[in-house]
Design brief:
There is one protein chain. The chain is of the alpha/beta class and 312 residues long. It has 2 domains: 4-92 and 280-298, Rossmann fold, CATH 3.40.50; 94-272, 3-Layer(aba) Sandwich (Rossmann fold), CATH 3.40.50.720. The chain is 31% helix and 17% strand. It contains 9 helices and 12 strands. It has a 7-stranded parallel sheet with strand order 8-7-6-9-10-11-12. It has a 5-stranded parallel sheet with strand order 2-1-3-4-5. Helix 1 (11-28) packs across helix 9 and helix 2 (93-111) crosses helix 4. The longest helix is centred in the N-terminal third of the chain and has 19 residues, at 93-111. The protein is elongated, with a radius of gyration of 22 Å. Bound molecules: NADPH dihydro-nicotinamide-adenine-dinucleotide phosphate. Residues 72-73, 91, 95, 99, 144-149, 166-169, 171, 197-201, 203-204, 225-227, 251-252, 275, 277-278, 312 line the site of NADPH dihydro-nicotinamide-adenine-dinucleotide phosphate. NADPH dihydro-nicotinamide-adenine-dinucleotide phosphate binds next to helix 2, helix 4 and strand 7.
Length: 312
């Protein structure tokens, strides 16, 4: 009997994913039943999942063998008490490339002073005011050196930025001065641009506080494409107001959509982007999903297995 794969990542996405998933299954030579029909949960072998989708209670899926999260972040499912089968998350080339482009673009925006140039289209020739330092003299710190953080570091190292990184466990990445564990402040000290690419877990909740912000260079830029809960919002707003932070570009928030009355929307030193830093791409992501199903069928180790105790 061919395995049954349930697409439970919201009916709206089924239209985007059905064809790439079928194509990936065919290419892998896997014969399977693929649908988004929530009835008969006992017959489901694999669940393709996204938070706020069609499934919250995994109890009826008595024969399921794996839940594949469509997103990189798993904070919306990792603590689900009804989930007691392996949970895998998305690491997708399209997602990674998108994040590298978003982070590199926003680093270059601030490094090159693009905002000042845009604000100075007034007929005055300010030649000497607008020569940026070279990237080799700009200190950038990346918090989180996983699939996304490591790729962002590689892009920034390639452009010659002085890159420091911080992770939970020791890491060695070419051209990156790496810190881990208790060394967060050493990683942040003097940074002119800081990028948050950590998962949201109990250990990273509100990790960027007044203390951390005070380690940064005066007028530093904060880029957060990780998760809103990584930042103490009151501390960031205060740091923006007193000039310690010169600008914050925020893609993710504790409450999404960000409420219209939230001070971030109107703050002159904040750019809000609506959780678009990077998106899982159906074409490449479907191949990751199918490779994991192939592995499960063959009894091989799964890719991108979530460590439930660490929360990511
Ligand atoms: P990974 O799991 O590959 O990497 C996470 C990194 O964070 C690892 O380096 C890990 O350390 C580090 N880390 C975790 N906990 C701690 C801690 N307590 N202290 C220090 N370091 C810690 O995740 P990804 O790179 O794939 O994704 C990162 C996050 O990006 C996702 O969780 C998601 O929230 C966000 N994201 C946002 C998107 C957007 O559009 N805005 C799109 C996709 C993802 P170690 O290496 O030691 O394990």
């Amino acid at each position: 009997m061919p395995p049954r794969i349930l697409f439970a990542a919201h009916a709206q996405r089924w239209a985007q994913y059905e064809a790439p998933l079928r194509a990936a299954l065919a290419d892998a030579g896997i014969e399977a039943r693929l649908d988004c029909d929530l009835s008969d949960p006992g017959s489901v072998d694999y669940i393709i999942f996204a938070p706020a989708g069609d499934v919250e209670d995994f109890t009826p899926f008595t024969n399921a063998r794996m839940v594949q999260n469509l997103w990189a972040g798993v904070e919306g499912v990792v603590g689900n008490p009804t989930l007691n089968i392996p949970l895998t998350r998305m690491v997708d080339t399209g997602l990674t490339e998108g994040m590298v482009e978003w982070c590199t673009g926003h680093v270059l925006r601030h490094h090159l002073g693009m905002d000042q140039m845009l604000a100075a289209q007034d007929g005055i020739w300010r030649h000497f005011e607008f020569i940026p330092p070279l990237a080799r003299d700009r200190r950038v710190t990346v918090l989180g050196l996983g699939a996304l953080g490591a790729a962002v570091c590689a892009s920034l190292v390639g452009l010659n930025f002085q890159v420091r990184g911080w992770s939970r466990r020791p890491k060695s990445l070419p051209g990156v001065d790496s810190f881990h564990g208790d060394d967060l402040h050493a990683a942040l000290e003097g940074a002119e641009i800081v990028i948050l690419l950590l998962p949201y877990t109990p250990a990273t909740d509100g990790i960027l506080t007044t203390n951390g912000l005070d380690q940064l260079a005066e007028g530093a830029v904060v880029l957060n494409p990780g998760r809103g809960g990584l930042i103490d919002d009151d501390a960031l707003l205060a740091a923006l107001d007193r000039g310690r932070v010169g600008h914050a570009t925020l893609d993710v928030f504790r409450t999404e959509p960000l409420p219209p009355e939230h001070p971030y929307w109107s703050h002159p030193k904040v750019t809000v982007t609506p959780h678009i830093a990077s998106e899982t791409r159906p074409g490449t992501a479907s191949r990751v999903v199918v490779e994991n199903i192939r592995r499960a069928e063959a009894g091989e180790p799964l890719l991108h297995l979530v460590d439930r105790s660490a929360g990511y």
